[in-house]
Amino acid sequence: MAEPIAVLTQRYELADGHTLDGYVQSNGYAALRTALDMDPLAIQDLVKESGLRGRGGAGFPTGMKWSFVPRDTGKPIYLVVNADEGEPGTFKDREIMERDPHQLLEGMAIAGRALGSHRGFIYLRGEYLFAGMRLEQAIAEATAKGYLGRDILGTGFDFEVTLHYGAGAYICGEETALLDSLEGRRGQPRLRPPFPAVAGLYASPTVVNNVETICNVPHIVERGVEWYRSMGPEKSPGPKLFCVSGEVVRPGNYEWPMGATAREIVEVSCLGMLPGRQLKFWAPGGSSTPLLTAAHYDTPMDFESVAAAGSLLGTCAMMMFSDRTSVVEACLNWTRFYEHESCGKCTPCREGTFWMAQILQRIVDGRGRLEDIQLLDEACDQIFGRSFCALGDGATSPIKSAIQYFREEFVQLIEQRELPAGLREHAGVVAQNSGDDRPSLSGVRA
Amino acid sequence: MSPELTEAAQRLVDRYPVARSALLPMLHLVQSDQGWVSPEGIGFCAQMLGLTKAEVAAVATFYSMYKREPMGEHLVSVCTNFSCAVRGAKDVYQRLSAKLGVGHNGTTADGKFTLEHAECLGNCEGAPVVTIDYLNYECLTPEQAEELLDRVAAGEIPPPTRGPIPPGVRAVSRRLAGLSAMDAEGGNG
């Protein structure tokens, strides 16, 4: 049995955990002092040995990502923190930045030291106003007291942090789209290679890391690899934030070691599903990860185990839905989201999400045809692996998995032309998102 | 555009290694001055950064927080993504839409409110979430959401779940440009 832990969340209960005083009094910036005495490559090796994998969704080994950065190009090296948290159901980074912003800044300074970078940017989604206020205050305090800026703690190391607000575009969470956006352009993904490590921000070597990823770094420096690896399985070690939402008693962010089961997290931390409701389907890592069912409730929440169950760990945004909720409506709601957020750069994603939304809308409206199920399935196959970036792939995840596990529900809805009585509670939730007034791109309506 | 605005925009340019990076903050700045991204505002950004108006407009129209019509005093956003939807967001949005008599991105005749339904706002633990000027009011019933707007309209704005009293979307836009001292603990300076 796993137990909840408090590593990244250790200051969440402190009234002043977001202030510099509160942070320093609870051992904050001790890891930065340690790191400033270390050889930069030794810091990188430590992060490599810890086994830390990116917490933004893809799970790439962080130390390895850092090691791809060439240090001898004569160009500045940039550290960009991806705080454009937009994956539906995800709210872990927001709470870190609101409650413990110095944890992120300390991690950035240490990462900057390891990378030989002197300039960091935090790309924060614009809607996170309160998190931005807390961050800006923290940056000002840390700079005034010598934890950031010029000659940090008298060691001669310079590292400046700039907070940059986005303006409402999910695609900017994709790291190359984020870089284009930070350069003042439309946030559309770039062709790779070159990878950002070689040619990122302003065509200079750049590391883009998620907020939670960077927040792991001070703890690794302070408490060591052996301690870090004592949490979670061999290939997915460390503490993890799980954002649980939907039809549970107590939604929220909960910290557990990697590999805790979905059941443990939901039953212990969230007190289970709402009274009278049974778990029917859930997304383990945001709406872009294939849905799982009640049969997968005991899946350990780590990269390998969730993949073995047929989905992805993603951002650990666990969205839990009950037997009173229509999985078809869920698909329509999320597909409207992808349709709206598709950046338009590539055809499979731009057109595919539009058409899938039309098909799902007519099914939900009682105008569906039985062959629509096959049509949706084929549309998914034409988008997946053929899109420019992961947004298109993600858009197919809920639909493919819903058809796989709940084909009967699609059939029943199409044949009866309305939701069964037990599923009507949320009927129409998606209508307000309907893009029906949008002109068709090809002149044909579904 | 005022000399003050030009000076503020120049401060944004100076913040970055490459001037064009200041474009998103500058569009927030324009929005704080004009209440929307006006054609004049687009021309202003183009002039400050040595871009064409088409280049600036291409960026401005890509991002949903930049509005192409004048906003009301307060921006009311209702998250309607699915984790909020299963906890009642549909009713909240529909009730507010009926109450204000406007739809998505619509502004009331008295210029008080602009309403929008938003994609996941990243506050799913407080579902259904309504934000006013991007400050959170969480776990609202439709009745509570209506009462909230009544109080805002009467100038008696209750404190949000976290952060300062919503100061109006223009003041907040200046904050999003990174240029105001409005702080997290309640000051609106």
List the helices and strands and how they pair.
The complex is a heterodimer of chains A (446) and B (189).
Chain A: H1 20-25, H2 30-36, H3 40-50, H4 62-67, E1 78-83, H5 92-99, H6 101-115, E2 119-124, H7 129-144, E3 160-165, H8 175-182, H9 196-199, E4 206-210, H10 211-229, E5 239-246, E6 252-257, H11 262-269, E7 279-283, E8 292-293, H12 303-308, E9 317-322, H13 327-341, H14 347-364, H15 371-383, H16 390-416
Parallel strand pairs in A: 1-2, 1-4, 2-3, 5-9
Antiparallel strand pairs in A: 5-6, 7-8, 7-9
Helix pairs in contact in A: 2-6, 2-10, 3-6, 3-10, 5-6, 5-7, 6-10, 13-14, 13-16, 14-15, 14-16, 15-16
Chain B: H1 3-14, H2 23-34, H3 39-49, H4 53-60, E1 74-79, H5 82-85, H6 89-100, E2 106-107, E3 113-118, E4 130-132, E5 135-137, H7 142-153, H8 169-176
Parallel strand pairs in B: 1-3
Antiparallel strand pairs in B: 1-4, 2-3, 4-5
Brief descriptors of the model:
heterodimer; A: 446 residues; alpha/beta; Rossmann fold; Ubiquitin-like (UB roll); 3 domains; four-stranded parallel beta sheet; disordered C terminus; B: 189 residues; alpha+beta; Arc Repressor Mutant, subunit A; 8 helices; 11% strand
Brief characterization of the structure:
Helix content of chain A is 42%, strand content 11%.
Characterize the structure shown.
The complex is a heterodimer of chains A (446) and B (189). Chain A is built from 16 helices and nine strands. Residues 427-446 of chain A have low confidence and may be disordered. In chain A, the strands form two sheets. In chain A, strands 6-5-9-7-8 form a five-stranded mixed β-sheet, with helices on both faces. In chain A, strands 3-2-1-4 form a four-stranded parallel β-sheet, sandwiched between helices. Chain A has three domains: 20-229, NADH-ubiquinone oxidoreductase 51kDa subunit (Rossmann fold); 239-320, Ubiquitin-like (UB roll); 327-433, NADH-ubiquinone oxidoreductase 51kDa subunit, iron-sulphur binding domain (de novo design (two linked rop proteins), Up-down Bundle), CATH 1.20.1440.230. Helix content of chain A is 42%, strand content 11%. In chain A, helix 2 runs parallel beside helix 6 (101-115). In chain A, strand 7 (279-283) and strand 8 form a beta hairpin. Chain A is an alpha/beta fold. The termini of chain A are far apart. With 189 residues, chain B is an alpha+beta fold. Chain B folds into two domains: 3-67, Arc Repressor Mutant, subunit A, CATH 1.10.10.1590; 74-167, Glutaredoxin (3-Layer(aba) Sandwich), CATH 3.40.30.10. Chain B contains eight helices and five strands; from the N terminus they run H-H-H-H-E-H-H-E-E-E-E-H-H. Chain B has helices spanning 3-14, 23-34, 39-49, 53-60, 82-85, 89-100, 142-153, 169-176, and strands spanning 74-79, 106-107, 113-118, 130-132, 135-137. In chain B, strands 2-3-1-4-5 form a five-stranded mixed β-sheet, with helices on one face. In chain B, helix 1 (3-14) runs antiparallel to helix 2 (23-34) and helix 3 packs across helix 4 (53-60). At the A-B interface, helix 7, strand 3, strand 5, strand 9 and helix 13 of A face helix 2, helix 5, helix 6 and helix 8 of B.
